Amino acid sequence: MAIGHALQKGTLIYVYDQSGHQITSISAPGRYQEDGLKGFTPEAVHVQKGQLLYLYNERGQQTGICASPYLPAST
């Protein structure tokens, strides 16, 4: 089942299939202003938490983690 849409409301990210049915939700507590939903593809939802970017599949299972490319450049 492919991800059709992802939407953040408060500290939860709701994931929908291509028919618009909710298939899972992902907790995204925001400690920093930049935290939260960063995007999605048909295979993954991208969520920033601190300096890390977490990847989740359509079942809400974490499938990856990496340094976030969305951090502001240091001066």
Main attributes of the structure:
mainly beta, 53% strand, four-stranded antiparallel β-sheet, single chain, three-stranded antiparallel β-sheet, 0% helix, 75 residues
Structure description:
The protein has 75 residues and is mostly beta strands. The chain has one domain. Helices cover 0% and strands 53% of the residues. The protein is built from no helices and seven strands. The strands form two sheets. A four-stranded antiparallel sheet has the order 4-5-6-7, with no helix packed on it. Strands 1-2-3 form a three-stranded antiparallel sheet, with no helix packed on it. Strand 1 and strand 2 (12-17) form a beta hairpin. The protein is globular.
**DSSP strand tally:** 7
Largest sheet: 4 strands, antiparallel
Cα end-to-end separation: 43 Å
Low-pLDDT residue spans: none
List the helices and strands and how they pair.
Elements (H helix, E strand, L loop, with lengths): L2 E7 L2 E6 L4 E6 L8 E5 L4 E5 L2 E5 L5 E6 L8
Antiparallel strand pairs: 1-2, 2-3, 4-5, 5-6, 6-7
Outline:
The protein has 75 residues and is an all-beta fold. The protein is 0% helix and 53% strand. It has strands at 3-9, 12-17, 22-27, 36-40, 45-49, 52-56, 62-67.
